[in-house]
Amino acid sequence: MCRYIIKFGAIVVISIVLFLSCGDNDNVVGSKTDSIETLTTSEPAILADGLSSAIIVATVLDSSGKHAGGLPVHFETTFGTINETVYTDQDGNAYALLQSVASATDIKATVTATVLDTLFTIPKTRAHFGVNLSVKGMKSLPGRKFDLKKSSAAGENSASIDVTFLGITFSGELQEIAIPADGISKSRLKVNIKETTSKKAITEAQISLAACYGTIVNKIVTDNQGLAQTDITAATTEVTDSIFMEYGNVFRDTLFISYEKPNISISPKTVYLIADGSSKTTFTVSLKSKENTPIVNAEVRFSATNGTIAPSSVFTNSEGIAQATLTSVAKVDTNVLVIARLNSFADTSHANFIKPILSLTPETGELPADGNSEMDFTASLLLPDHTPVVGAVINFSTSAGSITPASGETDATGSVSATLKSSFDEKENVIVKAAFQELEETATVKFSLPVLTISPTEAKLLANGSSKQTFTAALISRNNVPIENAEIVFSTTNGTISNSTAITNAEGKATTDLRSSTIADSNVKVIAQFHHAADTAAVVFIPSSTESGLMLDGEKELFRDGISSTSITATVLDDNGNPVSDATVFFTAQYGTIPQTAITGTDGKATVTYTADVGENSISDEITATVGTASVSHAINLIGLTMTLTASPDSIPADGTSKSVISVHLKQTESQLAVPGISITFTSNLGFIGTTATTDNEGVAIIELRAASTPGKATVTATYGQFVKTVDVQFYLNSPQSMVLTADPNYIWVKETGNLEQTVITATVLGVQGHPIGHSVPIKFYVQNSPDESLPADQQCGFVDEAGTVVRETASIYTSDGSASIGFRSGTKSGTVEIRAELVDQPQTLSRQAVIVIRSGPPYIWIDPADPNHVLPNMTLYLDYFNQDGKHALREYNVTALLGDKYNNPVEQNTTVYFTTTGGVITTDTKTDAQGFAHVSLFSGNPFPTTCPSDTRLDPHQIPNPNADGLFLPITLTDFEGGEVVNSCGDTGENDGIAVIYAYTWGRDQNGNDATVFSTAKAIFGGAIAHFEVFVDPPVDSLNPGEVANIHIRVWDEHGNPPSAGSSLTASTSAGKLSVEKFMPDKDRYGYGSTYFTTSLLNNLDPVEDEAQMAEVTIELDAPNPNGKVSGTVYVYLKL
Questions:
Q1: Letter string b/e over residues 552-584, b meaning 16 or more CB atoms within 10 A of that residue's CB
Q2: What Rg value do the Cα atoms of the chain yield, rounded?
Q3: CA-to-CA distance for 417 and 410, rounded, in angstroms?
Q4: What's the total number of domains in the chain?
Q5: 18 and 90: one domain?
Q6: Fewer CB within a 10 Å sphere, N or C end of the chain?
C-alpha cells in the first residue's frame, strides 16, 4: 500500500501518440500518388467504415521525467471503440486500438487517456503532476497532411485528442434491371465508394457480393475513382433476384434484378412427313427477350418423341435463330412431339409421320390458248381410312402457263386448290403437278388454239368511199365457250378499218367497220387475228348494178339464245317491176348468223334462215341484203336472256344416296319476265343426274344430282341453245368427325320434391362439313361422375331405359338424322353430374361430356304427429360467440343458419331465411349461398333480454309453433349459477340476459306438405362480474406428503351467467402441484361458459431436498366483463 502511495506522488507526464490504420492492409484515404506538397493539413482522420482503426499511444512520465512503467491507463472515446484499460510498459507506453464506427457523415471522436489510481482503480485526482502529450509515428493519409499540433496533447494525469471518422457514401447500380432468364445474359454492376464530405474516391476498398440465383463474383475492389465493377449472369429460371453488397461492418445495400422468361417459339407448329424413313423438314426456333431483342449464343436443345432430329443442340445466331432437321421413320405415327428447350423453358410442335394418298382432280382438261382462260385443280391428301390430312403443304407446278398459288395448306377436308392459267401457245400435253414431299400426282391439260371467225364472210360495197360494212369477230373455245376480254386485231387490204383492235365482250365478240374506197376492187380482204388464230372475210368494192328493185321480209323479234331462227326473204325486181331470176343476193347480219348468198328463183325471191346469236343483253340486229348497187335492211329485236345455275347444297356426302337440288332460272334480262317451256339439258362429270328438265311458269327448271360413292368435285353443266352454265358440287367423305352433347334442360331437382326431375340427353354426330351425318351409327351414354355414387342404386341418378329402369350405362342407341336421345332422371343427391356419350365404333375418337346440375329440394322438417313441438328440422343455427359482454357494450354476434333438404343436400342458393330475437337487434332476413349457409348479425343493443319481459312479444316462452296453432315452442333458459340470483320474474330459476334467436323459412315436412322449417339458438348478453369465490372443500389446513386439497371456484355476472368469451381463469401455487392451472378454453372454443371450476393441490415435496412450507394458491380471473379483473387466494401448509 505504501509503495503505491509513493508512486502516485511523482510528477507524471502522459504523451499520446496516434498511429492511424485503415482496414486490413492499412489502406488510407486518398490516392497513393498524392504528393506531400498538395496535401491539406487537418486533425487525425480515419474512414468511418467500421473497419479502419488507429493506435492510440499514451506515454506516462513521472515527476523526474522518467518513463513510468506498470501503471494502469484508462482509455475512453466518445465514438467508436477502444481498449479500456492498458498498463504501461517499461518505456512508459500504453497502447490502445481505436476502431472506427460506420457512418455516412463525418464524426469527431474525442479520445481520452487517464492514469488510474492503483489502489482504488479510479482516476488520479491530485492535479499537481505535470503531463506532456505528443503524437509520434502517425501514418499520413494520402491526400492529407495531419497537423502535428492537432495530433498531440498534454495534461496532468489525463489528456485528450480528437480523431475524425470520415463519413462514407456507398451506392450501387445495375445497367439493366431485367434480363432474360437464359443463363448467359449479363447486366453490369457498378459500386461507388467515396468520402461523403470531400467526395474523394476510396481506393482498394474490398466489397463483398452475393446473389440468390444469378452468378456473380464474391469480391470486387475499387479503382482510383472509387468504382468497382463486375457482371451478374442471369439464372435459368424466371425469378426476381437479390444482389447483396457489403463494405465494412455496416455498409450494406441490396439491388434487385428480374430474370424474365425468354420468348421461345418453334415453327412450323404442325407438319406432315411421309413415313418412309427419309423425309425431312426443318424446324426454326426464335429466341428473343421480353423486349423482342434476339438472344444470341444461347444453346437450344432439340428432341423428338419419334424420328431423328439433328443437331440435338444448336447455339442461336445473331438473330436469335436456331434450326434443326427432323427425319421421319418408316412407320406411321401421328403424335410426334418436337420440343425445343432453353434450360427450363420450352416450346412444342406437332409432327405426323403418315402414309397418305394424294389425288389431283380433274385428271384431264382443255383450255383455250388465250393467255387468260383458267382451270381449277384440287389436290386431296387422305389417309387410307379416308381421314383428311389437315394443314399439310401441297406444292403445285405446271409445264406451261402459270399456276397459283404455288403451294397451299390442306383444309378441313384435306384439300387445297390452285388455278391454272393458259398461255397463248398451243400445247398438246401440259403437265400439272401436285406434290406432297415425295408423293406426286399429275393431270394433263391441252392448250387448244381458240376458234376465231369473222362474219360476214363475204360482202359487197359500192366503191364510193362511204359505203360501210360491220364485221364481227367471234372468239370461242373448242367447246364453244365464249372468250371474254381478248384483244382482236383487225386489218384490211383496201378501204378503211374503224378499229384496228377491239376487246371481246361477254359473248366473245368484237366488232369493227370497213368503209369502202372509191376504186373498184374484187379482192378486198378483211382479217381478224388473235395471236395464232385468224380468219378472213372477202369483200368486193363494186362500181354499179342493173337491178333496181329490192325488198326484204322476215320476223321482227327473237330470243337471243343461239337457236331461235326465222326465214328472211329477199325479192329482186327489175326496172319494170318484174321478178329477176338467178340473181345473187348477198346477206349480212351484225350479230346473228345468216347465209352469205342466195340465188333468186323465177319469182325473184331468195329465202335464207337467220339464227340469233347468244347474249344476255337485248340488241337490235340489222340484216342487209345487197344486189348490185341496191341494198335493203331488215331490223330484228334480239331479246337478251339471263340463265343462272345453282346447287343446293353445294356439298353433299359421298354416300351414293345424298342429293343436291340443281336449279336453272331463265328470264328476260331487261323485263325480268320468266321464260317458261324451255327444255334444259343437264350433264355431270361425277354422280348421277337426269338429262333434261323444262322451265315452269316461273322460268325455273329443277333436277336432282345424286352423289357418287367416292369423294370428288362434280361439275354440273346446264345447256340451253348456246347458253352453257356450270356449277360445282363437292362430294365429301361424311365420316363422323365430332359430337355435340346437350341436356334440355341442363338442370333438374332431386326426386320427390314436386319439381322437374327428368331431362333429355341428346348426342348429335357431325360429319366433315359440320352437319349431322345422314347414316345411322350406334351411341352409348354413361354417367361419368355424380355426387351419389356411394348411395344405394334406388337413390342414384341415371338414364331411363325402355323398361323405365334407371341405369348408369345405356345399351347402344342408333342415331336418326345424326342424333340419339335418352331420358335422364335425378336421384336423392344434389350436385353436378357429368354425362359421357361415345360412338361405339370410335369410342376414343368421338367421346364428349356434358354437365347436368341436380338441384336440391326445399328445406325439410320432420314433425312428430303425436307432438308438434317434437320436430327434427334440417336447419342448424350457430353463433361465432354464444357469450359476450353485451349488456354494457355493443357487441356483434355472427349468426349462421345451415339449411338442408330431405336428403341432406344444401338447399337451393338464394333461399330466403327470416330471423327474430327476444333481445338486441338482428338482421331480419337473408338468402342462402350455394352451400346452404345464411349469415346475419345480432347486435346486443336494447331491448335487453329478460325471462319475464314487460313486452310479451319479447317473451321467450311465447314464441308460437308455426306448424301448430295455439302451441308455443318449449323454450327453457339456463340457470347457470343454480338458483343464486333473482331474475325478472322474481324467482331464482331461469336467468335474465339470455336472448333467444328464432330462424324460419318455408319448406316441406316428411309427407310432402308445406311446413315452416325453424330452429332456435341462445346468446348471452353478459353483465358485470358480481360473484367470485375461492374455497377449499372439504376444508384442510395442512397436507402430508402425497395428500390432496380440493380447491373450488364459483364465478358469475350480475344475472348469474358465466363470464364472457375471451375470459381467462388461471391458478398458480408457490409450492406443491396443481391438477389444473388453466380453466377456460380460448375465445373461439368458449361456448356459453361455466360458473363452477375445481382444481387439486398435491403435496409433492421431497423429504430430502425440500422443507415444509406454506403453499399460497392464487386464482386469477381476467374477463372482458366489467369488474372482470379479480383474484382470490387460499393457503395450505405442506408438511414433511
A1: bebeeebbbbbebebebbbbbbeeeeebbeebe
A2: 57
A3: 9
A4: 9
A5: yes
A6: N
Name 567's Cβ contacts closer than 8 Å, sequence gap at least 6.
554, 555, 607, 608, 609, 610
Q: Among 7-16, 849-858, 1044-1053, 1079-1088, which stretch is predicted with the lowest mean pLDDT?
A: 7-16
- In the block, residue with C-alpha cell 375461492: 1030
Residue (of 339, 290, 283) closest to 182 by Cα position? 290
- Clarify whether residues 328 and 305 are in a common domain: yes
Q: How far is CA 439 from CA 274, 354, 434, 506, 550, in A?
A: 8, 12, 8, 40, 72
Calculate the CA 76 to chain-centre distance. Answer: 68
Kindly list the distances between the CA atom of residue 171 and the CA atoms of 29, 215, 243, 250, 642, in Å, as whole numbers in the listed order: 18, 20, 13, 13, 88
Q: pLDDT tens digits, residue range 57-75?
A: 888 887 777 888 888 888 8
Q: Which of 859, 660, 688 is closest to 774 using CA atoms? A: 660
Q: Are residues 570 and 602 in the same domain?
A: yes
Amino acid 592 reads: G
Of the residues 354, 374, 406, the one at which a domain ends: 354
Contact yes or no for 588/538 (Cβ under 8 A): no
CA angle 240, 242, 248 (to 5 degrees): 170
491-535 pLDDT per residue, tens: 999 999 999 999 999 999 999 999 888 888 889 999 999 998 899
Check: CB of residue 604 under 8 Å from CB of residue 549.
Answer: no
- Residue 400 CA neighbour count, 13 Å, CB half: 23
Cell triple for 940:
346486443
**Closest by alpha carbon to 297, among 319, 312, 278, 282?**
319
- The residues, ordered by sequence, that sit 6+ positions from 1010 with a Cβ below 8 Å of its Cβ are 1002, 1003, 1004
Output phi, psi for 37, to 5 deg: -65, -30
- Among the candidates 298, 319, 354, a domain finishes at 354
Question: With a threshold of 0.85, does the pTM exceed it?
Answer: no
What is the band of 969 on the pLDDT scale with cuts at 50, 70, 90?
Answer: very high
Q: Which of 796, 729, 806 is nearest to 769 (CA)?
A: 729
Domain that holds residue 719: 641-732
- Mean pLDDT comparison of 125-129, 337-341, 1014-1018, highest-scoring range: 1014-1018
What DSSP letter does each residue of 14-47 carry, written as one string? EEEEEEEE-TTTT--SS-TT--GGGPEEES-EEE
Nearest 10 degrees: Cα torsion 783, 786, 790, 796:
-70
**How would residue 44 be classed by pLDDT, with cut points 50, 70 and 90?**
confident
Whole-angstrom distance, CA of residue 229 vs CA of residue 247: 14
Dihedral of alpha carbons 934, 937, 943, 944, sign: positive
Reduce the DSSP state of residue 953 to 3 states and report it.
helix
Please report, rounded to a whole number, the percentage of residues in the chain having pLDDT higher than 90: 55
Reference 1019, options 925, 941, 1116; nearest CA is 941
Provide the CB-side half-sphere exposure for 822 (13 A, CA).
Answer: 30
The confidence band for 963, taking pLDDT boundaries of 50, 70 and 90, is very high
Residue identified by cell 430474370 is 259
For the chain, what's the residue count? Answer: 1136
Secondary structure letter of residue 669 according to DSSP:
T
Q: Apex CA 637: angle with CA 636 and CA 639, to 5°? A: 140
* Phi, psi for 956 (deg, rounded to 5): -65, -15
Strands of the 280-288 sheet, one edge to the other: 263-267, 280-288, 321-327, 308-310
- Measured CA to CA, the distance from residue 631 to residue 586 in angstroms comes to 9
User: CATH no. for residue 297?
Assistant: 2.60.40.10
Q: How many angstroms separate the CA atoms of 381 and 530, rounded?
A: 40
My answer on whether 952 and 995 are in the same domain is yes
Amino acid at residue number 610: Y
